[in-house]
Design a protein that fits this description.
13 helices; 410 residues
Length: 410
């Protein structure tokens, strides 16, 4: 476990975490033994695999599909994963009540958050809450956002997408809960500000997000079967992994801009750099699941080490000083951005690989402003360049910079 001179402690939802890194609800938190091993590695907290009421868990062993996950690849590299598991695992309420107390006794400074999910039945939400409180969790997270659980849909919409429903569930839980309540929101909430405000009014101490995104990762072109095939058949599932990070960053930014509840960021985090981006956009803590499924609990050392060094290099003492620093730079609409007249792309000759990708992109998707000189090096005509940035997107050599008035803009 890495020791750092930088203060990584953060306060979230009234709780103190030794560092901002938590395990999100999922396979890495299936059992108490797994959570204990994660804590030994250095994770500050864990959100248990979501527990559902018996009415939603009946006969799960006979109905859970195999396989449950499949990779989403681009040019041979995993960029995401489809998941169709819905049961919440084999743990029952009694199992958590037996396994959480020893964890809290062995790791008193670590935070265990109980994740629960039901539909619109008040009794189910309260039963789950009371049971997890008896188990000794430090807080409750309300999963109102699982993208591939039809049981969580109310009139075709997730509870976490409907402001009044999310508020109602939060109030039900708060009536029987004396510990912090965190509402886990989906990616596509119509109005994040209103949603966060309603959750706060209902008694929530924090919000988290996002959950997986609804998906179908593809089909096998030879067999015509879906890529996640269960005896030749498929179903829509939940997408996780680095491919969903931009969607998650947007959601976290909007949650934080509401300004009424702290945010725990989730979605596509693989590295300390990813985590730092979430923190800069307003997240106080971050949660990881897919990264741990792919690489194990041991990644926490790189996460802590990298983030600590980054904070130190920025001349700061505490990671908390980073929270929201970039979010103040995000405007609500394009109309708020200041136009920059005269900006144009410039290709640095010594870096240019002469691949021609920028020439083709600008010719067929831009403003026909890039051509090749007698040495086959790409050159920009400033008079035709519209400053769209497409050449930056396709250049594999980082050979393009912005210029204005003949000087480098950065």
């Amino acid at each position: 476990m890495i020791e750092s001179a930088v203060n990584l402690r953060v306060e979230f939802a009234g709780l103190t975490f030794k560092n901002p890194f938590l395990l999100a609800s999922g396979s890495p938190t299936l059992t108490g033994e797994m959570i204990a091993r994660a804590f030994e590695h250095g994770w500050a907290g864990a959100v248990t695999k979501t527990l559902k009421p018996p009415s939603l868990r009946r006969n799960w062993l006979s109905r859970e599909p195999q396989p449950m996950v499949a990779p989403f690849k681009y040019k041979g590299r995993n960029i995401g994963m489809q998941n169709i598991a819905t049961s919440g695992g084999h743990m029952e309420m009694a199992d958590w009540q037996a396994q959480i107390p020893p964890i809290k006794a062995q790791y008193p400074e670590h935070i265990v958050i109980g994740s629960i999910a039901a539909t619109k039945d008040e009794g189910d939400w309260k039963w789950l809450t009371e049971g997890m409180l008896e188990a000794g969790v430090d807080a409750i997270e309300l999963d109102v956002s699982c993208s591939h659980s039809s049981a969580q849909l109310v009139k075709g919409r997730l509870v976490g997408e409907v402001t009044e429903l999310a508020g109602k569930v939060t109030r039900w839980v708060r009536e029987v809960c004396d510990r912090p309540v965190i509402v886990k929101l989906p990616a596509f909430v119509p109005d994040f500000r209103s949603m966060v405000e309603v959750c706060a009014e209902a008694g929530a101490a924090g919000v988290s997000g996002i959950n997986t995104l609804p998906c179908l990762i593809g089909v096998n072109l030879e067999t015509f079967e879906p890529l996640l095939s269960v005896q030749g058949r498929g179903v829509y599932g939940g997408l996780s992994g680095p491919v969903i990070k931009p969607v998650a960053l947007r959601a976290v930014s909007l949650m934080a801009k509401a300004g009424v509840l702290p945010v725990s960021g989730i979605g596509g985090i693989l590295s300390w750099e990813d985590a730092a981006e979430f923190i800069l956009l307003g997240a106080t803590t971050v949660q990881l699941c897919t990264a741990v499924m792919w690489h194990g609990y041991g990644i926490i050392e790189e996460l802590i080490g990298g983030l600590s060094q980054y904070v130190e290099e920025k001349g700061l003492w505490s990671v908390s000083e980073l929270v929201g620093c970039s979010n103040v730079l995000i405007e609500p609409s394009i109309a708020n951005l200041q136009a920059r007249s005269g900006i144009f792309a410039h290709i640095i000759p010594e870096r240019c690989r002469k691949c021609g990708l920028c020439v083709v992109a600008c010719r067929d998707g831009g403003f026909q402003a890039i051509f090749r000189d007698e040495k086959e090096t790409a050159v920009v005509d400033p008079g035709r360049c519209d400053g769209c940035g497409l050449c930056f997107v396709v250049c594999p050599a980082d050979a393009i910079e912005w210029r204005q008035g003949g000087t480098t803009e950065g």
